Amino acid sequence: MSNVRGRNRRGSGVLGRTAAGVGLVVSVVCMTVGVFTTPAFAAGESVSVSPNTGLTDGQVVSVTFTTTAATDAGVFLGITQCGNATSSGTPLTVATSADCVGAAGLGTSLRTWGSTGAGGFTGPVAAGTYTSSLTMKKTGLGTNNAQCIPLAQATIPCRVSVATASLSGAYTGPNYNFVATADIAYVSAGTTTTTAQATTTTAIATTTTTSVGTTTTTSGGTTTTTAAPTTTKAPTTTTTAPATTTTKAPTTTTTAPVTTKTFDCNTIPLPAASLVLSKNRCLKAGEAVTASAPAGTFTGGGSAFVVQCNGDSAIPTDGSGCNIGGLGVGVIGGDGSMAATQVVIKTGQIGADAKSVCPPTQAQADAGFVNCAIGAAPGGDRTKAASAQFTVEGQTVQLPVDPSGNPTTPTTQPSSGSGAEVLGTTTIAPATVTPTGTLPFTGLGGNTWFIVGVAIGLLDIGAVSSSYARRRMVG
Fold first, then answer.
1. Across the strands, what pairs with 328?
2. Rounded distance, CA 463 to CA 468, Å?
3. 423-468: per-residue pLDDT in tens?
4. CA distance 85 to 159
5. pTM of the entire structure?
6. pLDDT digits 0-9 by tens, 378-418
7. Are 271 and 441 spatial neighbours (Cβ–Cβ below 8 Å)?
8. Which of 100, 148, 308, 473 could crosslink 39 through cysteines, CB 3.0-4.6 Å?
9. How do 128-135 and 158-166 pair as beta strands?
C-alpha cells in the first residue's frame, strides 16, 4: 500500500500545504523536507515496489507508480529511497531529506521520469501507470549516511518515494503535484554458530617379550645341551650429504631520469575529444564558448547537462569540483547529436572545493590532471558522458618529454577516497613516446557525472512527511 500526500489538481487552490527548502545549494541537490498539514483524503496516486521484502543491498527492484493528471511542461517525476536509522543503527522517529538517497545516487538509487520516459527531466508526464527500476541501497543513504534496519528493530519503515519535481527543485504547485511512498524491508542478518567437534586419541601400549636361554635335556644318563639360537644384526649406517647453498646475484634496476619541458596554453597537448568546443585554447575568464556533439554521440532524444569541471580524483564526488552555477542544458537530437550549448568559462576556484581550480595546479598536472574540461551527460547518465579539455589564457605547465621534446604521459597515482575513474594514464619510459597532440591525460572521471547529474536542483522527493502519514490534497 502506498502513502500519498499533498496532491493538487490543475487549476485548484493549494489547501493547507507548505514546503520547505528547494533545489540547488552550491553544487549538490538540497533534498529538503516538506512539512504538511492534514488535508482531506481522495483516491488517486499510488506507488508499489516489487519485491518489497527480503531485500539486499544492490538489488534492483521495480517501482510501479500511478498518476491521476498530467504534469506541467517543466515538471517531471523522481523516485528515491529513504532510511529508518542513523549511520550507527539508532532507529529514527522521523526521516528527513538528509536520510534519503540524493545526488550521488542519480541514475541508480535516484531515478527520474519525464515526458520521454526513464531518465527524463522535462514534462509533461501524462496521467497513467509507469514502472521504473531502482537500485536498493542499505547503508550510506543521503548526507546523514542513514541505513535501513529490520522493521522489528525500527520505529518507522524504510520507504521508496515518488514525487513531482522540476529543474528548480521540488514542484509543489500551484498545478498538479504529489508525493507518494511505499514501505520496503531488507532481509535480516542471520547469526551463524560453529561448534568444533572434539577428537579423542587413545594410545595402545605394546609389549614385546624376548626369550633368551639354554635348554638341557637328560635321557638315560645322556645329557644334551642345546644353546638358544643367536641372531646378530649388522649395524646400519646412515650418511647424510652436506647441504647445498645457492647464491643469487643481486638485481639492479636503473630508471632513466625524466626530462621535462614547459608548455603554454598554445602548446599544451589536448587529447581527442567526443565533444566539440567552438574554441579550446587560451580561454579567458568570462569568455563564452559553445559545446556540441556530432550525430551518434548520444542516444537520440532528450537533454544533456553541460558543465565545466576540474577532474582531479582527489576532489570529493559531491559536485564541489565543478562550476555548478554555470550549468547548461543541451538539446539532444534524434540522431544523437547535441546542439551548440553555451558555457561561460570561469577561472581560479570554480567550485566549493579548494582544489577545484582552472587551470589545474602543477601538482595536479603531475598527477595526470593537466587541463580543465567541459562535459555533457544525457540525463546525468555518467556511463554515456562525453567531454572535451581546454587550456586557459596564461596557463603554463611542466610535462615530461622524450629525447625529441615530445610530451609523454604523466604518472597518475590512484586516488584514495574519491572513487573517481582515472582514465588513460600510464607510466611511459623515456624510450617510449606518445605522439604529439594525442597525449591521453586524465579527463573527466566517474565522479564528474555524479556532479553533472546532481546539479539539476531536483528532488525534494526524498523528503517524506515527519510521520509518513497518508496524506492527500484535492482542490
1. 306
2. 10
3. 332 222 333 333 333 344 444 544 444 444 544 443 333 333 333 3
4. 12
5. 0.44
6. 876 767 889 999 999 999 999 999 988 888 865 433 333 33
7. yes
8. 473
9. unpaired
